[in-house]
Amino acid sequence: MLLVDDNEQNLELLRAYLDDLGCETRTATDGVAAMAAIEAAIPDLVLLDVMMPRMSGFQVCERIKQSPRTRDVPVVMVTALNEVGDVERAVEAGADDFLTKPVNRLELLTRVRSLLRVRTLKRQLDSTLDELRRSRGE
C-alpha cells in the first residue's frame, strides 16, 4: 500500500491506523515521488492526499488510471477539502473512494479492507480467465 501526503504527521497517523491490517506500507511526500514509487513497485492500493507540491493528487490519480499497468489499483483520495466540486473532480480523475480529514480510523479501515478485497477478487478473476484461455488454446 502506498500512502501519499506532503505532511509527515498525516503519514504517521495513516500508518498507525493501518497497522492493524498487517499490510506493507510505503510512503511518498509529493505526487512526483508517488509516481516514482508506483513505477518501482505497483501497490495494492494508494491513499492519496489532494493538495501537494509538484503534482496534485488529482493529477497522480489520473496518471494511475490512464496507465494499463496501474488502472486497476484502487485509489482513495484523502483531503481536507470537502466541497462537492472536489468530490466530483476526484471521481472524474478516477478515484475509487474519497475521505475527508480528519480521517476517522474505523471508516478508513473499512474502506481500505473493502477495496483490498475487491483488488484480490479482480486478480483471482483475471487469473482464472487466463487459465481458461490457455486451456482453450487461445
Structure at a glance:
The protein has 138 residues and is of the alpha/beta class. The protein is built from 5 helices and 5 strands, in the order βαβαβαβαβα.
Q: Main β-sheet, in a few words?
A: 5 strands, parallel
Distance between the termini: 34 Å
Helix/strand/pairing category: alpha/beta
The strand line-up of the biggest sheet is: 2-1-3-4-5
Binned, the helix content reads 40-55%
Strand content: 5-15%
Number of helices: 5
What does the overall shape look like?
globular
Poorly predicted regions: none
What is the C-alpha radius of gyration, as a whole number of Å? 16 Å
Tally of strands? 5
The ordered string of helix (H) and strand (E) elements is EHEHEHEHEH
Arithmetic mean of pLDDT? 92
Describe the fold and architecture:
By secondary structure, the protein is an alpha/beta fold. Helix content is 53%, strand content 14%. The protein has 5 helices and 5 strands, in the order E-H-E-H-E-H-E-H-E-H. The chain has helices at residues 8-18, 31-40, 57-66, 84-93, 105-136, and strands spanning 2-4, 26-28, 46-49, 75-79, 97-100. A 5-stranded parallel beta sheet has the order 2-1-3-4-5, with helices on both faces. Strand 4, helix 4 and strand 5 form a beta-alpha-beta unit. The chain is globular, with a radius of gyration of 16 Å.
